[in-house]
Design a protein that fits this description.
Elements lengths: L2 H13 L47 H4 L37 E6 L9 H4 L2 E3 L4 E3 L13 H18 L3 E4 L11 H9 L5 E8 L9 E5 L7 H22 L12 E4 L3 H4 L5 E8 L3 H7 L2 H19 L1
Helix pairs in contact: 4-9, 6-9
Length: 316
């Protein structure tokens, strides 16, 4: 090939990858996998009145539905996206931006899929400052046995992947090797050392099948807490509530709280926290409509994205 022909070939390669034998897919990346998509239409349903209360009266969750399911254990939660089209929730800046660089976020997946195997351990009483409570509980389930613990695990892992992609350091209070619990006292302590910039405990409720909607639980001040912690927790709660409503389309709870806000002084996870922390009851697992959504991996990704956006809105 002459020098002039070689130069012409190089110019052509610079114009398009396909011209040099490449694939169009080689040019650039696809959509940002941490963005999600349009909110789903509003649905109805509620959740268990006490995420740290006594074990679910309907019995312990079946282990086969809580563990090992592809739906409950995505291979790579950072690559799953919500379906649909329309408004895309804020991602924190242009591709490659790290808006949460230097921030520490603690995510607390409620309950544990193995708690039912450790009844003696989880029923041990611990001091939450306002009363004594069980170390942990089994949580609730849908009518067909999908557990709150499995739901919380999956959403928390997806949320962690999104936040890490945005630059945050993320700690989870348990992983798949945690045999039970941990106790509600330890869950709070994990957020306190080193102090997190924000902490979110992920749950789903188990109220009557006719109830619906989500709510955010925030600390009601007790003597041991600082006013700043309570004030900042409320700011975090408002940011999470607004982002969750926008990102999921789920309605405010119809049975508890005021505009999806509920303040409590009986939860160890809040009473013992020294950092801004809230609980999110994502909806009612006993409500058929919401239960179906929670068992959809795409909708769980939407929930995770909404929660991550809420945390980012608070921290920025």
């Amino acid at each position: 090939m002459t020098g002039r022909a070689l130069a012409a070939a190089l110019v052509l390669c610079g114009l398009t990858a396909a011209a040099c034998g490449g694939s169009p897919d080689d040019v650039g990346a696809g959509p940002d996998q941490t963005t999600g998509s349009a909110p789903a239409p509003a649905v109805t349903s509620p959740g268990p009145p006490d995420p740290e209360g006594p074990p679910d009266p309907e019995g312990s969750p079946a282990p086969d539905t809580a563990e090992g399911s592809p739906e409950a254990t995505p291979t790579d939660p950072s690559t799953a996206t919500a379906s649909g089209a329309g408004e895309t929730p804020a991602t924190g800046g242009a591709p490659g931006a790290k808006p949460l660089q230097g921030k520490l976020v603690v995510i607390d997946p409620g309950h544990n899929e193995r708690n039912y195997r450790h009844t003696a351990e989880i029923n041990k009483q611990v001091d939450v400052l306002t009363q004594k409570k069980a170390c942990d509980t089994t949580g609730t389930t849908t009518a067909d046995g999908y557990t709150e613990a499995a739901f919380a695990t999956d959403v928390s892992r997806r949320m962690a992947a999104i936040l890490r992609a945005r630059g945050a350091t993320v700690k989870l209070t348990r992983d798949r090797n945690t045999p039970y619990g941990p106790c509600i006292t330890e869950r709070a302590a994990i957020g306190n050392r080193p102090p997190a910039d924000a902490a979110v405990s992920v749950h789903a409720d188990g109220a009557g099948a006719g109830e619906h909607g989500f709510h955010v639980i925030m600390p009601k001040k007790i003597r041991s807490q600082t006013s700043r912690m309570v004030t900042e927790s409320r700011k975090l709660g408002l940011a999470v509530r607004d982002a969750f409503r926008k990102g999921t389309g789920l309605p405010y709870s119809t049975y508890i709280g005021d505009r999806a806000l509920n303040f409590r002084d009986d939860l160890g996870g809040l009473n013992l926290s020294a950092v801004p922390k809230v609980f999110i009851e994502c909806g009612n697992m006993k409500n058929p409509t919401e239960a179906a959504k929670f068992q959809d991996a795409n909708f769980r990704q939407r929930i995770a994205l909404a929660l991550a956006n809420g945390v980012q809105d608070y921290l920025r």
